[in-house]
Amino acid sequence: MGTGPSPADVAGAAALVGLPGMTPVRLARLLDSWRPAEAWAAVAAGRHPAGRDPRWAGVASGTEPAAVADRYREAGVEVLLPTDPRYPARLVGDPGAPAVLLCLGDATAAWPGPAVAIVGTRSATPYGEQVAAELGRDLASAGVAVVSGLALGIDAAAHAGALAAAGERGRPVAVAGTGLDVPYPRSNSRLWAGVAAAGAVLAEVPLGSPPRRGAFPARNRIIAALADVVVVVECHLGGGALHTAEAAARRGIPVVAVPGSVRSAASRGTNGLLVDGCAPVRDVGDVLVAVSLARAGREPPPPAARSGGFPSATGRVRSSRAPGAPGGARSADADAGSGACPVDGAPAAAVWSALAGEPRTTAALAEATGLPVVELARACRHLLRAGAVVEGPGWWRRR
User: Fold this and answer.
1) Which one of 153, 217, 325, 344 counts the least CB within 10 Å of its CB?
2) Residue 258: pLDDT above 60?
3) Could you check whether the bond before residue 112 is cis, i.e. omega within 30 degrees of 0?
4) CA-to-CA distance for 128 and 105, rounded, in angstroms?
5) How far is Cα 144 from Cα 347, in angstroms, rounded to an integer?
6) What count of Cα atoms within 13 Å lies in the side-chain half-sphere of residue 385?
């Protein structure tokens, strides 16, 4: 990757991240084919083709990028660009890779060695927290980086377990949804500091950013992309951990799940993933086998049989329309699809048929096709690679 970006580009990137209303998608557009210093100058002059926000030129005119960079430096936060050798190699080339990544701690903590994401519900049961802590501890002891989101419940237990294996080779890595100077939740402040000291806390939102609902689902794609395997310990139907599982499956990253009581609401999502074909996790050995297979380029084999009598891990949705998609009833002919599917395989054909006529959300596709979440994500990915479909923020349509 060379010697890395210039100080001017690092400063420009830090300043761009802090513009009002900035999002990962808008930032990626600003930096598409633009060096950060050039993009900042164009935004400040009001001439960047992707920088038409009326607030930006005024804010930029009163902001000195070098001063912003100094603020990050004083906070101990590194500003990483994809051209920086310390930028996570796992994210380079990923379709959802942050254009600018912020790091508190050691930016190389999770790579190039094995890494496992442990995710699950905030309202975990004692059983779930105990399993997550044991997996985090045993994986760290085995030299595996433990990746999670520093949320309450499963995330916190997994990172606490990883920190309990202090001095071992595996190091904790967290992806936050707030500014790196805003530990969230506050009750996890000591855990946050511990993870930063032993590994790294990453974010894509600027310093000072408070908790915002949309930032947490967005960060889940980074958690998934950093891992060789994603382990879901406990998750409710429709829980946020399923978003991470979906993001992993779309990237070809294996998803495994910890079985739970059929009487526990906290295990309905994870048990649904098992029904959908994810491999079960009984102990750290199962996870290490999955990691070995993944790093060898193979996914864990699915169960020999799968029952269709249990609810899908995705749950059900009220509407099949994508946000912003045109409304109107679908005809039987539209549902039957038009034209041959450009990708071989029944799952891809089912998705292709379901997308005839209008866009659909991922959840609506799961309901329309009846496909398990992992199989659905794989089919969507194959269609995307073939150039047959277009992916939007949570929805799909034919090209």
Assistant:
1) 344
2) yes
3) yes
4) 28
5) 34
6) 13
Assign a CATH topology to domain 332-398: Arc Repressor Mutant, subunit A (1.10.10)
One-letter amino acid of 213: R
185 preceded by a cis bond (ω within 30 of 0)? yes
Structure tokens at 326: 């045109």
What integer best gives the mean pLDDT of the chain?
A: 84
To which H or E segment does residue 350 belong?
A: helix 346-354
Distance (Å, rounded) from C-alpha 374 to C-alpha 336?
23
Domain ranges (residues) in the chain: 7-76, 115-295, 332-398
Distance from C-alpha of 394 to C-alpha of 237, rounded to nearest angstrom: 18
Output DSSP code: residue 302: P
Cβ atoms of 114 and 143 within 8 Å: the answer is yes
* pTM flag (> 0.85): no
CATH class of 115-295: alpha beta
**CA atoms of 337 and 335, how far apart (whole Å):** 5
For residue 126, count CB atoms less than 10 angstroms from its CB and return exposed for 0-12, middle for 13-18, buried for 19 or more: exposed
Instruction: Tell me which residue has tokens 């890494």.
Output: 115
Which is it for strands 115-119 and 145-148: parallel, antiparallel or unpaired? parallel
Sign of CA dihedral 263, 268, 274, 278: negative
Token representation of residue 68 = 């912003």
Residue linked to tokens 């526990």:
264
From 7-16, 72-81, 95-104, 303-312, the region with the lowest mean pLDDT:
303-312
d(CA 109, CA 282): 27
